[in-house]
Specification:
By secondary structure, the chain is mainly β. It has one helix and 40 strands.
Length: 500
């Protein structure tokens, strides 16, 4: 039987978060303190940079009770929580904590799971599977990561962490009997009841992934059109839609992003955010293989608007729109590159059920020329800005890797050889760097599906250290085409989530 004093203590602990709760902007609905903290925490949101700063106290997140500051919302079903985070200042206690937390309730002893980075670099997934039970923990070998991801996948939770630039280290903890709806958000805990600590969170994303019964090319998730600073990794969502948009090109005049959606081509105005459909006349069934000429005057598109038996064919038209001119006589043909002098198009051609790389005169005035001859898939061909090489991806070694060759198809050499599946090399305007898409090893080498956890990575054109510059949910349509800004400082791409 509870005494009056113990009942008051329980009520205080359970109500603490509501006393300090407040509404905030951004992707979270509320913020407040969980547990009997001595110092009220706070959350601020910078709408321009879309970053959060949390300050909070709290004795600990351990044993059978938690004390911390929390910015949160309710989520249902599966989700992926991801951010780039760091402490602000040197701190007092080496075990101050920041990260993601999922809870079944807002009282101090609720069942929960959290992706936790400590002030001394210790990183772990901590969890309490039932209300009032003791916290358990699995530690990560990665010390002081700044990329923190917590995923709910059916009855499991997965911690993924990395130091920016490296691939994730991941561990899965199964058998959580949490309700469908849970509280989910960012937290900070000082690990010292008398101290307030601060943390910064940028590139904060809540991803609602594809359901297991989604049918590719029939069912689609929503899309974020994003811009990223390649040097810093800072990302900004420019435009969000509930349907599928794919493959942004960046025009050389720095005014427009061109992308496809539902068979049509659209212009996104970088100055005012307005979206206008581009006139492609009778060519309507466009896919995500569209490329700008180096001078920005012409647009090449791939479309199934011709004879049905050919599938995708290649057309060109003025960048401002107009009646397209058919270039490839047969198909399927998927455009990927335009030579710097404007004279040639390079594309993936499916001939006799084998997909190799071809080139053809951009005016359509010659027969196609076969550049690769492999039984496996070659794809994603793109000219370097100096015209000396064509870069592409090939599955000829058993995994999908980046290659390059001379424009006549000679001197084919492999550039990457790692455990990931690497697609769509895009060369920076100064010709020094490559940005490309990487799938995890479990994806088939010849597949580039929608709605997977992928990386955008960069490397020097002649080989060298490969660095992850973006951790995202996407894949097909994310960065199929050249999307560097004219000054080489930014790239544009598409990430995906269910948009509610």
């Amino acid at each position: 039987m509870h005494t009056k004093k113990s009942l008051q203590t329980i009520l205080f602990c359970c109500m603490a978060v509501f006393v300090n709760a407040q509404n905030i902007s951004g992707i979270f609905n509320n913020t407040g303190d969980v547990g009997a903290v001595k110092h009220k925490g706070s959350t601020t949101y910078d709408s321009e940079s879309r970053t959060y700063e949390l300050s909070g106290s709290g004795a600990n997140i351990w044993f059978d009770k938690d004390e911390f500051h929390y910015a949160y919302k309710k989520l249902n079903g599966d989700f992926i929580l991801r951010t780039r985070a760091k402490f602000i200042g040197h701190g007092v206690d080496p075990h101050r904590k920041l990260g993601w937390m999922v809870r079944t309730g807002l009282d101090t002893g609720s069942a929960m799971v959290c992706a936790t980075v400590h002030g001394d670099g210790l990183t772990s997934i901590q969890f309490r599977k039932e209300n009032g039970k003791q916290v358990e923990e699995v530690t990560s070998p990665v010390k002081m990561p700044d990329i923190i991801q917590l995923e709910r996948r059916e009855s499991s939770f997965l911690l993924s962490v990395a130091k920016y630039g490296d691939p994730f280290w991941t561990v899965e903890i199964p058998h959580f009997e949490f309700p469908e709806e849970v509280y989910s958000g960012l937290f900070v805990c000082s690990h010292n009841a008398d101290v307030v600590e601060k943390a910064n969170f940028e590139n904060v994303r809540i991803v609602l992934p594809a359901p297991t019964d989604l049918i590719p090319y029939q069912d689609y998730l929503g899309s974020h059109l994003e811009r990223m600073d390649v040097a810093t990794g800072t990302r900004k969502i420019l435009h969000t839609v509930t349907n599928s948009i794919q493959a942004p090109n960046w025009t050389p005049d720095n005014k427009t992003l061109i992308y496809n959606s539902e068979g049509l081509i659209f212009n996104y105005d970088l100055a005012n955010g307005k979206v206008v459909q581009l006139n492609t006349d009778f060519v309507q069934s466009n896919n995500n293989d569209h490329v700008l000429s180096f001078d920005g005057k012409m647009l090449g598109i791939s479309s199934a608007s011709g004879e049905e038996e050919y599938g995708s064919l290649i057309y060109t038209l003025p960048v401002d729109g107009g009646k397209p001119k058919r270039i490839t006589p047969t198909g399927p043909s998927y455009l990927h590159g335009w030579s710097p002098d404007g004279k040639w198009l390079t594309f993936t051609g499916g001939r006799n059920s084998v997909y190799d790389i071809y080139k053809i005169a951009s005016d359509g005035g010659s027969e196609e020329i076969k550049l690769t001859n492999e039984s496996t898939l070659d794809d994603g061909s793109e000219y370097s800005p100096d015209g000396k090489y064509i870069y592409f991806n090939s599955a000829r070694t058993g995994s999908m890797e980046l290659w390059r060759m001379k424009p006549d198809g000679s001197e084919q050499e492999q550039l990457t050889d790692d455990h990931l599946q690497n697609w769509f090399p895009h060369i920076s305007p100064d010709g020094k760097s490559i940005v490309f898409l990487s799938y995890l090893p479990e994806v088939d080498a010849s597949a580039h599906p929608f709605y997977k956890q992928v990386y955008l990575r960069t490397m020097p054109v002649d080989g060298g250290r490969i660095k992850v510059i973006a951790y995202l949910y996407g894949g097909q349509g994310t960065i199929n085409v050249p999307s560097w800004s004219p000054d080489g400082k930014h790239i544009a791409f598409v990430s995906n989530t269910k948009v509610e």
